[in-house]
Amino acid sequence: MCLLEQINYQLILSDIYEEIANIDYEGNVANYIPQLAKVNPEKFGIHLCCLNEGNYAMGDSNEKFSIQSISKVLSLTLAFSMMGDKLWERVGVEPSGNPFNSLIQLETENGIPRNPLINSGALVISDILVSNLVNPKADYLSFIRKISGSDEIQYNTAVANSEKETGFRNTALINFMKSFGNIKNDPETVLDFYFHLCSIEMTCKELARTFLLFANHGTLTGTGECIVSRSQSKRVNAIMQTCGFYDEAGEFSFKVGLPGKSGVGGGIVAIHPDKYSIAVWSPKLNKKGNSTKGMKTLELLTTRTELSIF
Amino acid sequence: MCLLEQINYQLILSDIYEEIANIDYEGNVANYIPQLAKVNPEKFGIHLCCLNEGNYAMGDSNEKFSIQSISKVLSLTLAFSMMGDKLWERVGVEPSGNPFNSLIQLETENGIPRNPLINSGALVISDILVSNLVNPKADYLSFIRKISGSDEIQYNTAVANSEKETGFRNTALINFMKSFGNIKNDPETVLDFYFHLCSIEMTCKELARTFLLFANHGTLTGTGECIVSRSQSKRVNAIMQTCGFYDEAGEFSFKVGLPGKSGVGGGIVAIHPDKYSIAVWSPKLNKKGNSTKGMKTLELLTTRTELSIF
Amino acid sequence: MCLLEQINYQLILSDIYEEIANIDYEGNVANYIPQLAKVNPEKFGIHLCCLNEGNYAMGDSNEKFSIQSISKVLSLTLAFSMMGDKLWERVGVEPSGNPFNSLIQLETENGIPRNPLINSGALVISDILVSNLVNPKADYLSFIRKISGSDEIQYNTAVANSEKETGFRNTALINFMKSFGNIKNDPETVLDFYFHLCSIEMTCKELARTFLLFANHGTLTGTGECIVSRSQSKRVNAIMQTCGFYDEAGEFSFKVGLPGKSGVGGGIVAIHPDKYSIAVWSPKLNKKGNSTKGMKTLELLTTRTELSIF
Amino acid sequence: MCLLEQINYQLILSDIYEEIANIDYEGNVANYIPQLAKVNPEKFGIHLCCLNEGNYAMGDSNEKFSIQSISKVLSLTLAFSMMGDKLWERVGVEPSGNPFNSLIQLETENGIPRNPLINSGALVISDILVSNLVNPKADYLSFIRKISGSDEIQYNTAVANSEKETGFRNTALINFMKSFGNIKNDPETVLDFYFHLCSIEMTCKELARTFLLFANHGTLTGTGECIVSRSQSKRVNAIMQTCGFYDEAGEFSFKVGLPGKSGVGGGIVAIHPDKYSIAVWSPKLNKKGNSTKGMKTLELLTTRTELSIF
């Protein structure tokens, strides 16, 4: 039990899990690359880490899955820690509105993406990391291993290569931004790095532990190392809150009320500052590309604990 | 002193006020109608209400100003309390992206505005209130007086009428939505109601007291009356967080980290759930239409208290 | 027979009429106002006027119908004759791309419509005529009677009033442009004038005779009066060519290859400079809002005569 | 003298040339690749070919320049002759409206470009040719040599390669369309072919002779070979008329009144069906990217001959 609030998280998660697990939610597993398409759609895992102590888990919480876009928060964090507020010269912090604005916005805003959690913004962040890391892929993996506290985290090269073969839209985006001068390196190199970031695999437990630093104002709970400042951590959370769920950021904010991020692999991670981080995994996605059971789990969690940031 | 956190708000506000008051920030007073243009640009007031006790004020905090768009949160609240989730059939909860998308989004999304805090969404909310209130203007004013605890609150009819004379864009928006069937009443009637809502005048003190209910999960601190449910209050806060500052919602979230709403009269109100509400007034607006000193005040407040929802 | 080219137009039109008349083309009569909805969908008339002599007709060519948007070419012509090239300060001459760009284009281009044949452009032209005519409705009707050579031409007031009751989109457009300062008169007055222009009724014969001046370089064939200069007539034709069929201007240019203009009443008029003008009427419209049989008639005409401007 | 109309073209061109040559028109030479930037901005040549006989020339009419986008009409012609109307399943015939709609239109219209003369459309045409020609680059060059009647026409490989190095926007476009399935071949291969097409160099004389077939209903004047059918030639002309000048197609149509096409190398070609073709070259471009002197020359030509298609 998480001592701070005397909430019985295990009981609440267990109830939610039972309630949701056997409902046949609509939705489809991401199928644009074979590696994601072959995942068992019925997988369902939850892991919640309280800041000071407890860990609570249900279902397939120790099984690896592709974190995909969730990686964008972590690459943002590394770039922010290296560049500080200079970062915001190359990417904004505003929500992006509906999906088909992304290209017109790049056009009218001179190749500056709206925020670092949409594809265009994550590509700019990748470009910054390629410029600033000595061995981008190796250095980034070291960073992830450090903040997750797990040396077992790996890229899935098959997934990364598969993305490359079908990534025409990302190729379009990066070349479009290059035409505005907002990509400094060779587009192929940046794309290769970006696809590797997205191919990282974690379990719910690893993912929840990795994001615990954002509930802890930027400091690792284990070692006490400060990854980003208190102010920077607040800002990363604010960006997750307003931009973390594509065209469903408002909906998530409205129903769940926590900063979070989803990925097309079916993972969702959310944090409650000063309290906990939670990762949910269920591969079936709703029409907006977010895990159906993941969204429902978090909605029930904040409703039943009567705790959200609002 | 607000007992809960042992923070000396008066000292902090006093420091911030001194620091900001005499800096000559750039910006212009809204001048599209004469009544707003003639306001003294140097006015600057702050009022903070803690949930359980203290009230802290600085400067022109007892002077009336036009709350303008801040009224949209209150009309949303009244409509939400009457209609419940049926409301969301006629207006969304997603941020709107950059300003010139409003019309194209109405076009591609069949006249359903993105959220209730942009003009199109507030017009739909006004239409709903016109349909559901017996005497719309009188009933709405009664509602505002109840939640503010002040019988002195009034519409400024001169401001409302002046808006009508220059409100061609709002006339365009409402007729465009009417063409999609998402306005049920006569456009003129709804516009008249809408311009009256925006013409309400409050002092910083009244405004902070009015919004205290959103820090208190929907319940009035004075009478204990529940205006909206705990869940509904959370949702109004979430909408303020993602949509409260036009094209600067992300920026406000990023720098301040509190749900809030601004108006072109120079007012900004923000709330920290379970802690306080705060209203700031300074008429000079930045390029995005938000009070320059108001934004700065709130940024310094959350930085110095080290308290935000993130 | 039109002596100039020794083409037997009567035979060609007769063949085309027979071929098309009994085919059950898909499409719907415009039904947004009752007066248009009650027209017999099977009506089909053709009238072709050669410049020097012959008149050739088939079917319901002497029955009145609502010319609707075809009127926009005539109001443009009157405004152009009065204002000359100063006109182009308030409206452009470029095609408008796809329909839902009209509003975003007004936004990005400061309220200047792309061309005078889309609704926004025709509203600006109406505003110009309201400013410049002493008795706008009476003076405009006199102009139409002069160029058509027929005193029997009338507005249909019932149609005009009906348009007003459902014209929310046009109300939106005109108020939006007014907000940019590109409408000088009261929006209601301009709309009333605009809806009257569109309500004019003509027969195919009258319509063909009215447009003959554009085949004759701006001069009336009967009286020899010069309505617009040779250069101005060329320009009106060029605008019809590039902008006359909403989102199907390219298609019409591609298949027919003549300058022309359509209306939702089912009329289409086209001209071949130095040769003829032709009006076709059939109320069933294709998905783009142009008369299905009208388009087919003109395509067959230019294919079989092997004469187009290209 | 061109016998048909007894117009003294040499005298008219000579007058126009004198009038324009020494005026210091504003404008800049295209400078995005070094090969174009180093062209002498003062170059100015004209060549007019009458259908039956005469050739009239002024200035630098025998100097080679890069035809750039003018090539799009020729690649369209070859693809149209091979595919017939099946071509229109992959590209439209409507004008594209203002430039920044190109990407949003591809998004909303599923990767089908608006017409074959904008970059996206020309890339689809290039993809079709790559699929259908045995040796694309060699076969295309043979085609151009045949219709121009000149074996001296060459690609400029330095120009083509230079385009590749800066062609990020075209890379973006082709990958975006590939993501919709409207590009069948490898993007790199298609881009290489496309950049070669645009690098072709011609003199004004060669260019005018090449386009004479479109004044002659698709048939080569020299050999009598039919390149495209009468109907196809009409359609290519119609597309030039509505789409040949980027965002200035309406302006060109309005002022000049002939089908034509421009390129950023400073060339413009136009044709008057049944009469003549004309090529003008002057490297200084106006803000829309069309040759300033070229536009003026053609405007004066149609004004003084009092002959346009309208």
Automatic annotation (TrEMBL), chains A, B, C, D:
Segments traversing the membrane: none
Enzyme class: hydrolase
Protein keywords: Acetylation, Hydrolase
Gene3D superfamilies assigned: DD-peptidase/beta-lactamase superfamily
Alphabetized InterPro entries for the sequence: Beta-lactam/transpept-like, Glutaminase
PANTHER family (alphabetical): GLUTAMINASE
Record text on subunit structure and interactions: Homotetramer.
HAMAP family: Glutaminase
Family per record: Belongs to the glutaminase family.
Name the UniProt record assigns to this protein: Glutaminase
Organism name: Pseudarcicella hirudinis
Gene assigned in the entry: glsA
